[in-house]
């Protein structure tokens, strides 16, 4: 009996089995790659810049920031590339060697890219007046920023007065003489800073509200990554958990996941990162050796007025509860004026250490911050910073110790 050679697709039995498997794997790989990566293009106009270079930078697929460039010919230029879901970038007449000046909105325009065809019309030396069309994420960003216009109008003169007072009080003096202390102006600065900090929290609320309302937007991932260290950890996790797998797989999403991992190591409920060092008197100090006690890590700096304003209350709490086993460890990173501040504020009654690495371990990005650790070395509360729980530390201690 003669067996006929039947063709099944392009594969022959046995002979091409390996080829079929390899082909299938390649097809699967590229189909997934194409699903993750999509092409985009930008067609632009810029009059008055013919035969000059224009530069474009963005976060590419699985890569560090990409720089591209092209000549403007006849007032026209074009860029193209591939992204996942979305990407952030900017277009500028400055090359990468002048990166430090990239914030100049006259010659640089921030862009939020969508995987589609987009267009931009630029005005020479007035890039802030650009007209960028075709990107869903740019439209969302523009609408979000527009919602903050009233806040900016209100805060701009306050910032101007604050900057003016700051320069008058602490700016350089032509003849090199030391300025006399101006208590009234310092108090005005403190009041203005309090108002500006409150306005800053409103700006932050607008960003986080957008993330809650638009869990399917690349812009939400970007905003959460940019503000991750200013948002309470539980709120951060609620926003992140609502993102799709595709958004989490973007480069910004992957970066955000890593940052969240760092924060989780010192979030409420985590075991306190241990450290061993010497305090300001040269005495060996180990956090692990204080197991069985309540410990407050007080992150502060000698130049931080809000930090030092808390010291009288911290002294009161320490005096009240030290007999119950309460320990306080003051942690600073700036040696200038450190010892003098300890003496002046009478906070040498507890351990004071100079160490910059501990703040990183505890994800401290602003001060003052107090981290409360229970006898089992578990973090039970964080207080003080804009990203922290602003609950009442003294109330928490009263609850724990019963008086």
Question: Could you walk me through the main structural features you see in this protein, from its secondary elements to its overall organization?
Answer:
The protein contains 13 helices and 15 strands. By secondary structure, it is an alpha+beta fold. The protein has a five-stranded mixed β-sheet with strand order 13-12-11-14-15, with no helix packed on it. Strand 12 (327-332), helix 11 (338-345) and strand 13 form a beta-alpha-beta unit. Helix 3 runs antiparallel to helix 4 and helix 5 (218-227) runs parallel beside helix 8 (251-264).
Secondary-structure topology with pairs:
Blueprint: H1 17-36, E1 38-46, E2 53-59, E3 65-71, E4 76-83, E5 87-92, E6 108-113, E7 117-122, E8 131-133, H2 136-146, H3 149-170, H4 183-213, H5 218-227, H6 233-241, H7 245-248, H8 251-264, E9 276-278, E10 284-286, E11 295-299, H9 305-309, H10 311-321, E12 327-332, H11 338-345, E13 351-354, H12 357-361, E14 369-373, E15 379-383, H13 393-401
Helix content: 25-40%
| Shape, principal axes of CA atoms | globular
Low-confidence stretches: 1-12, 24-35, 386-391
Order of helices and strands: HEEEEEEEEHHHHHHHEEEHHEHEHEEH
Describe the sheet with the most strands: 5 strands, mixed
Query: Strand fraction band?
Result: 15-25%
Number of helices: 13
Q: How are the strands of the largest sheet arranged?
A: 13-12-11-14-15
The termini sit apart by 99 Å
> Structural class, judged by helices and strands?
alpha+beta
Mean pLDDT: 85
Radius of gyration (Å): 28 Å
Record field, number of beta strands: 15
């Amino acid at each position: 009996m003669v067996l006929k050679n039947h063709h099944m697709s392009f594969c022959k039995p046995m002979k091409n089995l390996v080829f079929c498997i390899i082909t299938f794997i390649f097809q699967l790989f590229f189909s997934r790659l194409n699903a993750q990566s999509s092409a985009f293009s930008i067609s632009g106009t810029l009059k008055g810049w013919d035969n000059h270079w224009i530069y474009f930078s963005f976060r590419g697929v699985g890569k560090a920031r990409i720089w591209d460039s092209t000549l403007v010919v006849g007032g026209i230029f074009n860029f193209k590339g591939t992204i996942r879901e979305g990407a952030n970038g900017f277009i500028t007449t400055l090359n990468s060697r002048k990166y430090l000046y990239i914030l100049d909105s006259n010659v640089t325009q921030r862009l939020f890219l969508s995987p589609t065809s987009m267009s931009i019309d630029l005005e020479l030396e007035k890039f802030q007046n650009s007209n960028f069309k075709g990107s869903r994420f740019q439209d969302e960003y523009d609408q979000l920023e527009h919602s903050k216009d009233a806040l900016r109008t209100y805060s701009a003169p306050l910032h101007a007065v604050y900057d003016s007072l700051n320069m008058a009080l602490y700016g350089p003096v032509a003849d090199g003489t030391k300025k006399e202390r101006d208590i009234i102006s310092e108090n005005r600065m403190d009041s203005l800073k309090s108002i500006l900090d409150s306005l800053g929290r409103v700006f932050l609320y607008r960003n986080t509200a957008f993330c809650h309302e638009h869990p399917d937007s690349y812009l939400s991932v970007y905003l959460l990554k940019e503000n991750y260290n200013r948002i309470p950890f539980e709120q951060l996790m609620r926003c992140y958990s609502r993102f799709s797998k595709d958004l989490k797989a973007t480069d910004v999403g992957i970066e955000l996941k890593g940052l969240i991992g760092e924060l989780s190591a010192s979030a409420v409920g985590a075991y306190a990162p241990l450290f061993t060092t010497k305090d300001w008197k040269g005495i060996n100090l180990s956090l692990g050796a204080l197991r069985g006690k309540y410990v407050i890590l007080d992150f502060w700096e000698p130049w931080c007025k809000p930090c030092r304003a808390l010291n009288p209350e911290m002294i009161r709490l320490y005096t009240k509860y030290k007999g119950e086993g309460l320990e306080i460890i003051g942690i600073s990173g700036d040696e200038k004026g450190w010892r003098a501040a300890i003496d002046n504020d009478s906070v040498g009654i507890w351990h004071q250490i100079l160490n910059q690495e501990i703040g990183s371990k505890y994800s401290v990005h602003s001060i003052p911050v107090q981290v409360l650790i229970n006898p089992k070395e578990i973090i039970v509360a964080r207080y003080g910073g804009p990203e922290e729980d602003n609950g009442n530390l003294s109330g928490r201690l009263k609850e724990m110790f019963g008086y």
